Task: inverse folding
């Protein structure tokens, strides 16, 4: 791609560093900004810079937060004895949206993946183990993705907490609500039969 | 979407102002920036701001340029008597990539579209008409998109320059190279027959 302006080229190059944004999309986005009032670009730049420079993580659960202790961890109405372990802050948002969980979270910041150079030390695992050791935790719910990396991470953490008095569980795997049986993959269908729930329970939402 | 951080929320909101970027994609992009070194965010913000604040447009063809007269307009090897009229600077880049055009460009900045509130006065039309009036132009090639708005814009400009001694042409419409005939739409196929080219000419690239 040949650019008639160095400024434009630099902007497109930086924009195309973002995941899933190729050079052509980057050019489209940058030209869009050019057609908008200058304020839009300065608001965007300012928002990104402030976010990157000033954002903090909750000292307890490692969720993104503007204060030391996030709104969930500092909420006394939530059950601090039940911890849901997730990879990412997006997972926290997804679970919060369901309105089904009244405990607190622990954000690992990823999963163990030797291929990507992510070992246990890069993740927020030790602080979780410390919480379990302190004896304040009754249940740990593992809500990682159902992949080899997710399972490895689950297992690694489980090994470290199994000797303590804490209930470990994983979120249920099964056929999605609204999905047809015939299109489900074998493993999921198999697990859904293995982990079947009593009929009366399946109607309840809580 | 519930955010645990105001800084994050603002960044996602600003990012999702961009065309084709929804809230979920914006969140993914912003969280990606959070995982990268701070420099990446500051480079991106800086590049966007500089571009928006400092970018200039060629005084002659209205292409984006860092100097008053763009590299194409100031290139003496190019034929200044042939002007290719395009909507957008992306079209300039696309035509330049073909290596088939040795004239200069005139970037309108859009096309006449009453629905979007774009009239002839919002476009760089008068400066094009002035160039024709000055008598320095031998040929005007219209290379706008083949839509109602594109045709309207073509026609509007043509009306204003038809009394001057200048050749007007439009780029050829036809079956794309590599395309199967049976999948072509009727209008395109019809035009490709109407505007057929002598057989010997069809082999030449220039």
Result:
């Amino acid at each position: 791609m040949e650019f008639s302006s160095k400024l434009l080229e630099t902007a497109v190059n930086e924009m195309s560093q973002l995941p899933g944004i190729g050079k052509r999309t980057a050019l489209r986005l940058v030209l869009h900004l050019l057609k908008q009032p200058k304020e839009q670009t300065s608001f965007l730049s300012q928002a990104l810079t402030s976010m990157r420079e000033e954002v903090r993580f909750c000292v307890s659960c490692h969720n993104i937060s503007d204060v030391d202790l996030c709104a969930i961890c500092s909420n006394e109405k939530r059950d601090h004895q039940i911890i849901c372990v997730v990879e990412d802050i997006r997972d926290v948002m997804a679970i919060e949206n369901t309105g089904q969980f009244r405990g607190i979270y622990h954000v690992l910041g990823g999963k163990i993946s030797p291929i990507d150079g992510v070992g246990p030390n890069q993740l927020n695992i030790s602080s979780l183990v410390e919480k379990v050791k302190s004896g304040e935790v009754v249940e740990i719910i593992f809500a990682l993705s159902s992949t080899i990396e997710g399972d490895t991470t689950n297992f690694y953490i489980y090994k470290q907490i199994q000797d303590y008095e804490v209930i470990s569980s994983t979120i249920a795997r099964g056929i999605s609500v609204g999905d047809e049986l015939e299109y489900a993959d074998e493993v999921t269908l198999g697990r859904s039969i293995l982990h079947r729930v009593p009929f009366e329970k399946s109607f309840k939402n809580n």
Chain A has a mean pLDDT of 90.
